[in-house]
């Protein structure tokens, strides 16, 4: 692979053509060189000509506004607080708890103004019979009745399956781009994919009602917690912005036929900071149009410890990393926390029940008592704060 040790201050979000990675040759080599630079120096890209069937994508785009137009009573019936797997409907809240590079390790509260529906393909909770209590955080979703929105669940589940497959293929391209064996990141996933349950969301960003209120934002600056995010911008309404190395906010407007792909904290940590989990935000649309988006968040297996990472990158990758670190306007805090040394599933459920003690006590009482033997601790977020899956 040709070497280009020239860390770039991106002034726009680059596009990679996925089809070029699918057959050997100079186009594929060039794809991997660009991908390496993007992973280290921007952490965001558009992916065009991807493997997800556009008919399936278009169905999800059509269903997004239809779901949010369902009567409030139906949406309340599938409120996520009723789900042990934290799946379902989430009304416009004031604030939620999510990672933000604020100088502190771990999640902190940030503001958001959006309505959302979290979904996943149903997973059989029996798969985890005999496993510790924390392994029982995956399961079936809460769906609106079929007759209220015919074909909705089937369309979303088909979409989910195709994006999930793309995500594993893309993870192997990332490994290769960084000079590792294409299967190197498999250590972070379950070989039995039924034991993985990425989360996806339909998002609706209502237009601003009070432009002078700085708290009224789609979602404030944050990084995603998981491994990779595949974002479908499901309406032609801009708002997503990405922070580059110099701290400038770059617009990331919708481009037909693409996904926006970005890297999460888990990938940043297992790559020991080489891959960048980039801060991003969504500014609420000025109106009258509504912004819809569909992020798909992949994660590591529940049965790995992030702090076990020991990636054997070639020297040139470490050099690119060090060159980037010198240009960053603030340090990358990939340093392992106490929770990174625990099994990832335990860490994940701990954060979830911490942010939703009432859900912890209701759905995971044994685990909740183990984590909080003296009862719930006081929360910094509002009653319907949530963490990104
Ligand atoms: O809706 C978007 O465009 C981005 C959403 C996002 O960043 C998130 O949910 O983590
Ligand atoms: Fe995000």
UniProtKB/TrEMBL annotation:
Keywords per UniProt: Iron, Metal-binding, Oxidoreductase
Residues in Fe2OG dioxygenase domain copies: 194-300
InterPro entries: DIOX_N, IPNS-like_FE2OG_OXY, IPNS-like_sf, Oxoglu/Fe-dep_dioxygenase_dom
GO MF term (any one): metal ion binding
Signal peptide: none
Protein family: Belongs to the iron/ascorbate-dependent oxidoreductase family.
UniProt cross-references to PANTHER family, sorted A to Z: 2OG-FE(II) OXYGENASE FAMILY, PUTATIVE (AFU_ORTHOLOGUE AFUA_2G00750)-RELATED (PTHR10209:SF885), OXIDOREDUCTASE, 2OG-FE II OXYGENASE FAMILY PROTEIN (PTHR10209)
Name of the featured protein: Fe2OG dioxygenase domain-containing protein
